[in-house]
Amino acid sequence: MTPKTSIRYLKGVGDKRAALYHKLGVDTVDDLLFHFPRSYIDLSAPHTIGEALLQEPCAVKALLTRIGREQRIRGGLSLWKLRAEDETGTPLDITLFNVKYTVEQLVPDRYYIFYGRVTGTLLKREMSAPEIYPADGIRPILPVYPLTSGLSTRMLRSHMAQALRELKSLPDPLPADLRKQLELPEILHAMKEIHFPRDLTQATRARRRFIFQELLVLCCALGSLHNQEAKTVICPMEPVDLQPFYHSLPFSPTGAQRRCIEECAADLTRDVSMNRLIQGDVGSGKTLIAVACAYILAKNGRQTAMMAPTEILAEQHLVTMSQLLEPLGLRVELLTGSTKAAQRRKVLDALALGQVDLLVGTHALLSDGVEFFDLGLVVTDEQHRFGVKQRAALSQKGEDCHVLVMSATPIPRTLSLIIYGDLSLSILDEKPPGRRPVETLLIDSGKRTRAVGFIRKHLDEGKQAYIVCPLIEQGEMNTELRSAVEYAKALAEGDLKGYRVGLLHGRMKPREKETVMRRFKSGELQALVSTTVVEVGVDVPGATIIMIENAERFGLSQLHQLRGRVGRAQEKSWCILVSDVKSGKTAQRLQVMKREHDGFKIAEQDLALRGPGDFFGYRQHGLPTLRVADLADDMEVMEQARQQAQRLLEEDPALECPEHSLLRAERDAMLGSVGDRPN
Ligand code: ADP
Ligand code: MG
User: Fold this and answer.
1) Which of 13, 449, 576, 597 is the most exposed place for a label (fewest CB within 10 A)?
2) Ligand 1: which residue has its CA nearest to atom 6?
3) What is the distance in A from the centroid of ligand 2 to the CA of 80?
4) Which helix (H) or strand (E) holds 153?
5) How many A from CA of 653 to the centre of ligand 1?
6) Nearest protein Cα to ligand 1, atom 25
7) Are 1 and 167 in contact (CB under 8 A)?
8) Torsion angles phi and psi, residue 365, rounded to 5
9) What is the pLDDT, as a whole number, of residue 537?
């Protein structure tokens, strides 16, 4: 038997079960081995009946005293009632269903371990359908697997044990010296310990090895994507005196803005292209960095392209950027899909002649037919909307171009390194002065009517509000649409009757969304009801309230982004989180929103409090699905994997050495699953 052997060749697996295994993504012995336990049952220290905690799954050791007769119940089901007692004489009533074979194996007056949830009262303890193991000669730790209906835990354990027994060897993708250096167990050994561990410490050690392996492969995969974007040697720019620029600003830049601008200015005068990420919380003033760079470029006679993910954002940038740059004699133009033909012609002509210094637009800017006189810098805003592969494509487009990326999504350093490669990082960790933090209220749905009353008061004063719709589980195709429409209608005809309410949802065409957004921005709409698609980065200074329904369903970073839609002017702003969850981790998370206003700190807390799941838009970056590792929990291993991958790729960039061939195969498989687009 080899790892590639089909699962069908295992004893007890025929076509039918093979089809069930296929549902779990298991087709070969190798797949089976990588179907890791979800958790373990620990039978090593069973409780007495009296000690067993009620409602918690646990192992109870007891003497089987009576086995009742088979009773037929409805639907062809059978039931058995058993009685057991522990040394103290405390009884336990056990009910079993449809397990004739198991019952036939049981012998009265023998000790067994019953694993399950103890229910009932202190006087009358019960267990329904427990797993039953002989008290002697059993492995103390048993694996529990993710299952599919038709495949039982027992079957999986037996097939797994068989595969592990019959497999002679398993090739190890981790190079031996690396394994030794990091004291990681060899693969077959680790495989045995992860499925049938001697104790839980061994299981953890084995799992850690596989997490490392997976993250190493991930880092090698992304590392090789970045390697393709080798830095080009280009003609360095002349240093530019920024004093006239600073003097012309209507405000004085923050210390963080000055620092970032200087970092960019230094990059621009080097003979390798700039590849820099500006990470700054919403409202930290990232646009100014792009404006300063465009100024430096223009003074060197070169052009800048600024790309935003939507037309409305592009228009917004046009307004703010031309206000800052035109007084300095620069020409700023806009080009989007909606630019009229005559205007487009005019812009393109001026662009080709080098008369336009800064061209703002959507990604259509880099399409064929748009010819720059001398493009020197491409700035992309809200980069997290682009996937890793798109990003790689993007930087190839403007070949000897400098690249500046601006993002409001805070991601841990390690993750940003693997996503963006050796992109240099500038952090805008200071907000312009005079901003008041958005006051955040946490209410339950019982207080919604009052909250809407509060919103009405603000609308009467000429202010605007966002209302984020309840989130629904994905289900029927049109559920999202229907619920958003119904919710907006209910508001418009009920609590917000007589007000101008607009609706924005994910199933609208981009054009329609832009129209609604524009009407809201212009003040024509007073309230905007939306699903989570509230356009990232859009500045509506008149909006001072955002109310978010089902707040518990959002990640903290997402809530922070949503909250960032308000508080963009000097006015006091409010964020109302509606949630009926009052206890547990979720409630704790929402409390974080009340006291914390710093996106980076919120991201850290999110990381600490959030269970497995999408992490900082990991999937948004089009990154592959991980089988074992969970980035929220395994950041430390990730850092180790990143360093090792970097070292490996330095020594052997294409992973061509024979001892890296398995690693290369794994990497290629993972690269194949890197998505093109964020989803
Ligand atoms: P971001 O893109 O980081 O969310 P913006 O660049 O859109 O933030 O800036 C948000 C607002 O703050 C804009 O209205 C901008 O004019 C203003 N602003 C930026 N820098 C400063 C500053 N140093 N002092 C005062 N206002 C500033
Ligand atoms: Mg912005």
Assistant:
1) 449
2) 285
3) 67
4) helix 153-166
5) 42
6) 432
7) yes
8) -55, -35
9) 62
Tokens of 414: 């390690």
| Interval between CA 603 and ligand 2 midpoint (Å) | 19
CA distance 206 to 194: 5
pLDDT, one tens digit per residue, over 61-85 is 999 999 999 998 888 888 999 999 9
Which residue's CA lies nearest to atom 9 of ligand 1?
285
Is residue 600 within 8 A of residue 282, CB to CB? The reply is no
Task: Indicate whether residue 398 lines ligand 1 (CB < 6 A).
Answer: no
Closest CA to ligand 1's atom 10: 283
| Beta carbon of 280 within 6 Å of any ligand 1 atom | yes
pLDDT at position 613 is 45
Q: How many CB atoms lie within 10 A of CB 569?
A: 16
For the Cβ of 251 lying below 6 angstroms from any atom of ligand 1, the answer is: yes
- Protein residue with least CA distance to atom 12, ligand 1: 285
Ligand nearest, relative to CA of residue 539:
1
**416-467 per-position pLDDT tens digit:** 777 666 678 888 988 888 778 899 999 998 999 999 999 999 999 999 999 9
Residues in the chain: 679
Average pLDDT rounded to a whole number, residues 342-353 = 95
Give nearest CA residue, ligand 1 atom 5: 285
Q: Please name the residue whose Cα sits nearest to atom 15 of ligand 1.
A: 285
DSSP notation for 25-59: T--BHHHHHTS--SEEEE-SSPBPTTTPPTTSEEE
Are 40 and 115 in contact, with CB atoms under 8 Å apart?
no
CA of 418 to the centre of ligand 2 (A): 24
For position 313, what pLDDT does the model report? 85
How many angstroms does the Cα of residue 569 sit away from the middle of ligand 1? Answer: 10
| 335 neighbors 305 (Cβ within 8 angstroms) | no
Q: What is the pLDDT of residue 677?
A: 39
Q: Structure pTM?
A: 0.67
Q: Compute, in angstroms, the gap from residue 379 CA to the centroid of ligand 2.
A: 12
Greater confidence (390 vs 272) lies with 272
Q: Which domains does the chain have, with CATH numbers?
A: 44-138 (2.40.50.140), 243-428 (3.40.50.300), 439-596 (3.40.50.300)
**pLDDT of 362-383, one tens digit each?**
877 877 788 899 999 989 887 5
Inter-residue contact 539 to 316 (CB < 8 Å): yes
φ, ψ of residue 501 to 5 degrees: the values are -110, 130
Nearest to 90 by CA among 114, 56, 126: 126
- Specify which residues 80 forms β-bridges with: 96
Task: Provide, rounded to the nearest whole percent, the portion of the chain with pLDDT above 70.
Answer: 88
599 lines ligand 1 (CB under 6 A): no
Helix (H, G, I), strand (E, B) or coil at 210: helix
Spatial CA neighbour of 629 closest among 210, 33, 221: 210
